[in-house]
Amino acid sequence: MTTRMPPISVTSTPADDGLSWLLDEFVGRVIGVTAALLVSRDGLKMAAARLADDQADKAAAWVASLHSLARSAGAISGVTASGFRQAVIEDDGVLVFVVSAGYERHGGAGLVGSVLGILASPDADPGVIGHEMGLLVGSVADHLATRTRGGAHLGAGGGAR
């Protein structure tokens, strides 16, 4: 179980401060979570917690790929609205959670959302982790949109790249 805490408000934190600190706090607070990663939908690492740089870069690519595959399930089944909420992968050694983050509030205007990936121990409580991920995304959604390729990235990651 995890201690109940209100959603974290970062409305006064400038976007170019990055969000790795927030992911670190999440990993430290939610029981069973071992690492966290925020990536653009095209696979660029925006922020990471408890992952070495090379691990985070590799994980960014597969988190974005998992997100893309999961979102396409709706199209295959004939659902017209994008109702993707979460993908969970269970392995003997790890649980992987992938959720959309931030793009729903930024329809159009050259902005797309990002993807939150969480790694957890195999005995972690998926319900608690999913709930906490929802609170995290909801509390910082406005900071999670990125510009489409060719434009400067917004949100986590330190300004224009």
From TrEMBL:
Pfam families registered for this protein in UniProt: Robl_LC7
Database matches in InterPro entries: Mycobact_SerProt_Inhib_Rv3364c, Roadblock/LAMTOR2_dom
Superkingdom of this protein's organism: Bacteria
Domain Roadblock/LAMTOR2: 20-120
Gene3D superfamilies for the chain: Dynein light chain 2a, cytoplasmic
Name this protein carries in UniProt: Roadblock/LC7 domain-containing protein
Lineage of source species: Bacteria, Bacillati, Actinomycetota, Actinomycetes, Streptosporangiales
